[in-house]
Design brief:
This is Helix-turn-helix domain-containing protein. GO terms for molecular function: DNA binding. The chain has one domain. The protein is 42% helix and 16% strand. The mean pLDDT is 87. It is an alpha+beta fold and 64 residues long. The protein contains three helices and three strands, in the order E-H-H-E-E-H. Strand 2 and strand 3 form a beta hairpin. A three-stranded antiparallel beta sheet has the order 1-3-2. The termini are far apart.
């Protein structure tokens, strides 16, 4: 079993599209690593990050 989530797995945990998870990683909004050119997210860090963000809502722009 891996110590890392993929961007897709993180997206599934927080109900977010994979490309948004990668965008947040590039912007430094979510803890991450790049291993062999692939985005990887340490499970312990991500689970802690999610717990710390409980009750925090992100404002999104609706497309009209």
């Amino acid at each position: 079993m891996s110590d890392f989530y993929t961007a897709k797995e993180v997206g599934g945990k927080i109900s977010m599209k994979t490309r948004t998870v990668k965008k947040w990683a590039r912007e430094g909004k979510i803890p991450h690593s790049k291993i062999g050119g692939e985005w990887r997210f340490n499970k312990i860090q991500i689970d802690k990050w999610i717990k710390n963000r409980e009750g925090v809502y992100v404002e999104t722009k609706d497309k009209e």
